[in-house]
Automatic annotation (TrEMBL):
PROSITE patterns: PHOSPHOKETOLASE_1, PHOSPHOKETOLASE_2
Annotated protein name in UniProt: Probable phosphoketolase
Cofactor(s) this protein requires: thiamine diphosphate
The entry's keywords: Lyase, Thiamine pyrophosphate
Lineage, broadest ranks: Bacteria, Pseudomonadati, Pseudomonadota, Gammaproteobacteria, Lysobacterales
Record organism: Luteibacter rhizovicinus DSM 16549
Pfam families recorded: XFP, XFP_C, XFP_N
Gene Ontology terms, MF aspect: aldehyde-lyase activity
């Protein structure tokens, strides 16, 4: 084995690693006496010992070596750390390289600054223990495992000069999301994309158990990684000097191979690219490396006991001495001068300026955010001359608009989805760009291309992770998914929303492009898929997040969908959820009316009501399918009760129902009362679970009069109207609700109830016999009320 590190370089790199380890231990344990200038006492130790030691020293080792490669090769590199609990190590490194002090000047490179660095870690109003947004250079917190590699590849797409070093923890490697993300290499085009260097860090244990990949035979592990399409390079041991040399050699080999792959590929074009076998590193090192060997007679280093805080109690002098000896083993006074400043002899090993991983602008995507060039959406509009004069597939209309967006942003915009782009009627995008594919081709394949910009893989986790990585590094994207299965990424959405919330208050992290979801194939049109494909609950999940981050839109037709999509794509630092059906459905508003309606968020549809200035009832809807049922119910009511006065309200922006102090889009009470009145019954047909409407409106004057119909976990393989019937949101039920709640119609309730059951019986018998809805339902079309001259 060659030894790429000269003796003096090896000595200084080892010192650099020791400095990072010392700062890591100090953050976990100390609140004072940072340089151990006086004997360590209990008063110097934090009362609450929090953090994770076990993974961190390996991360420090890797970061030190990446610094050497960046300097020698002038690399443009960022890091993604899967074992997010290694936060103190990454904080330590950004402090050593100067990034931390540049962003947080009060944590200067002095004894006092080091004291603040230590004290703030896992301290009230300080910083968390993860590689969090507060950590310079981080785009991945790692608090929840499984997404590091997908984030890394998302960052590398369309970043041809970028190398993303991604550390995958062996505990993380057991998650389904991570296991799938190894396949991301099948989508990386070496001509136009950057590179990802996976580093599988095997330290043998999770919290209390061994890890799977650390216990299988080396040959089996090699075969596994080669089966995924990588060429693994193994480094293992525990003695520092040979480990430094071995890792440096493996790193150089991998970087040489990445350069070779890209150089050869870039002699051709992106359309000619073939999938290479990318290199990776498998690093096996002891858990808690360089830490205490034994505590209370039990082994610690190299065991699961090193996972968090190896010494968690200081109720005897022996524990205090173990900690003091441990920290002194790093020879801090050799590493830092008397003022607490990292000695230049070692500090000069770090990259300079934006080559430092803590200051690389790709890890702070708002700094690099490219303008999204947007076509005008009005030319894609449906020509609606009168409400309900024709049907159209709203998402197919949207697909044509998105193809225009793609065409104008061929290096900064991608569409992501789990094999559902065409299913959700967005296939017009393929006219501009195919689906990314670097594998084998067969004659039946369609729309596949090595330079495609539509990212399809049958894993919602990967689509979400790729998109997050793409957005966090300054680009734009759109995620289309079946409504019921977006729940697969509930927790990933959680983490991204939390990231956006925290970074919103960080002046040094400018806003990034919003994460935009289109949820289609929704709950109300599952004619063949049935109950398994019915779940609108993502709305509730999103609505629980901080109001400055989340938006939920339910456009009732194609023109409203175009207006909403244009707004969402232009927005910054939000999560936008759009729910729209893909089936042919009635179109209600011309484009100018749609824009006004969507801008307001909710409004009265005067053309659908009668006597709206003093209504008997307000009929409201949110969602395309509920809107049809409300309008059909209004037509029935005009027949049943000729003198009834109805106000029709449609809600596009769900969060507008909240008060302004709860959400920026919220209506003030006067506007809400102008729509829903203060004292009239409100029959509200909602796309999702009814409870969320009550949650959003519980503080309103008229809340007690709001009666919501929505999804209540009833459904099967059935017709569109029968889905409504099963969940009591059909036109017959809504009409009965009105009669039952308008006081002056009390004498009609018994007859109305009998009529309702007769209609439901007629419906049930017909769909059971014919397998489709009644003719008067299939052929229903909105008719404006004839007004006597």
């Amino acid at each position: 084995m060659t030894e790429p590190l000269a003796p003096d370089l090896l000595r200084r790199m080892h010192a650099y690693w020791r400095a990072a380890n010392y700062l890591t231990v100090g953050q976990i344990y100390l609140r004072d006496n940072p340089m151990l200038d006086e004997p360590l006492t209990r008063e110097h130790i934090k009362h609450r010992l929090l953090g994770h030691w076990g993974t961190t020293t390996g991360l420090n080792f890797i970061y030190t070596h990446l610094n050497r490669a960046i300097v020698e090769r002038d690399l443009n590199m960022i890091y993604v750390i899967g074992p997010g609990h290694g936060g103190p190590g990454l904080v330590a490194h950004t402090y050593l390289e100067g990034s931390y002090t540049e962003i947080y000047p009060h944590i200067d490179r002095s004894v006092a600054g080091m004291r603040e660095l230590f004290r703030q870690f896992s301290w009230p109003y300080g910083i968390p223990s993860h590689v969090a947004p507060e950590t310079p250079g981080s785009i991945h917190e790692g608090g929840e495992l499984g997404y590091s590699l997908s984030h890394a590849f998302g960052a590398a797409f369309d970043n041809p000069d970028l190398i993303v070093s991604c550390v995958v923890g062996d505990g993380e490697a057991e998650t389904g999301a991570l296991a799938t993300s190894w396949h991301s290499n099948k989508f990386l085009n070496p001509v136009r994309d950057g590179a990802v260097l996976p580093i599988l860090h095997l330290n043998g244990f999770k919290i209390a158990n061994p890890t799977v990949l650390a216990r299988i035979e080396p040959e089996e592990l090699r075969d596994l990684m080669r089966g995924y399409g990588y060429e693994p390079h193994f480094v293992e041991g525990h003695e520092p000097e040979p480990m430094h040399q071995a890792f440096a050699a493996a790193l150089d080999t991998c970087l040489d191979e990445i350069r070779r792959i890209q150089t050869e590929a870039r002699e051709g074009t992106a359309s000619e690219a073939k999938r290479p076998r990318w290199p990776m590193i498998v690093l096996r090192s002891p858990k808690g490396w360089t830490g205490p060997k034994v505590v209370d007679g039990k082994p610690v280093e190299g065991t699961w006991r090193a996972h968090q805080v190896p010494i968690d109690k200081f109720d005897n002098d022996e524990h205090l001495k173990i900690l003091e000896d441990w920290m002194k083993s790093y020879d801090a006074h050799e590493l830092f001068d008397e003022r607490g400043r990292f000695r230049d002899e070692f500090a000069t090993l770090a990259p300079r300026g934006q080559r430092r991983m803590g200051m690389n602008p790709h890890a702070n995507g708002g700094l690099l955010l490219k303008q999204l060039h947007m076509p005008h959406f009005r030319p894609f509009a449906q020509d609606v001359k009168t409400p309900g004069d024709h049907k159209a597939e709203a998402t197919r209309v949207l697909g044509k608009f998105l193809s225009g967006v793609m065409q104008q942003n061929m290096e900064t915009f991608r569409v992501f989805g789990p094999d559902e782009t065409a299913s959700n009627r967005l296939e017009a995008i393929y006219e501009v760009s195919g689906k990314t594919w670097l594998g084998e081709y067969e004659g039946v394949d369609e729309n596949l291309s090595p330079e495609g910009r539509v990212m399809e893989v049958l894993s919602e986790h990967q689509c979400q992770g790729w998109l997050e990585g793409y957005l966090l590094t300054g680009r734009h994207g759109f995620f289309s998914c079946y409504e019921a299965f977006i729940h697969i990424i509930d927790s990933m959405f959680n983490q991204h929303a939390k990231w956006l919330k925290v970074t919103r208050k960080m002046s040094w992290r400018p806003p990034i492009a919003s994460l935009n979801y289109l949820l289609s194939s929704h709950v109300w049109h599952q004619d063949h898929n049935g109950f398994s494909h019915q779940d609108p609950g993502f709305i509730d999940h999103v609505a629980n997040k901080k109001s400055e981050i989340v938006r939920v839109y339910l456009p009732p037709d194609a023109n409203c969908l175009l207006s909403v999509a244009d707004h969402c794509l232009r927005s910054r630092h939000y999560v936008n959820v759009i729910i729209a059906g893909k089936q042919p459905d009635w179109q209600w508003l011309d484009m100018e009316s749609a824009v006004r309606h969507c801008t307001a968020g909710a409004g009265i549809w005067s053309w659908a009501g009668r006597g709206e200035d003093d209504p008997d009832v307000v009929m409201a809807s949110a969602g395309d399918a509920p809107t049809v049922e409300v309008l059909a119910a209004i037509m029935l009511l005009r027949e049943y009760v000729p003198d009834i006065r109805i106000r029709m309200v449609n809600v596009v922006d769900l969060m507008s129902l909240e008060t302004p102090d709860e959400h920026p889009h919220g209506m003030d009470d006067d506007v809400f009362d102008d729509l829903f009145t203060k004292d009239k019954p409100v029959i509200f047909a909602f796309h999702g679970y009814p409870g969320i409407i009550h949650k959003l409106t519980y503080r309103r004057h008229n809340h007690d009069n709001i009666h919501v119909r929505g999804y209540k976990e009833e459904g099967t393989t059935t017709t569109a109207l029968d889905m409504m019937v099963l969940n009591n949101m059909d036109r017959f039920q809504l009409a009965l609700d009105v009669i039952n709640r308008v006081p002056r119609l009390a004498d009609q309730r018994e007859a109305a109830t009998q009529r309702y059951w007769s209609d439901i019986q007629r419906h049930k018998l017909y769909v059971s016999e014919h397998g489709q809805d009644l003719p008067d339902v299939r052929d229903w079309q909105w008719k404006a009320e004839e007004v006597d001259e």
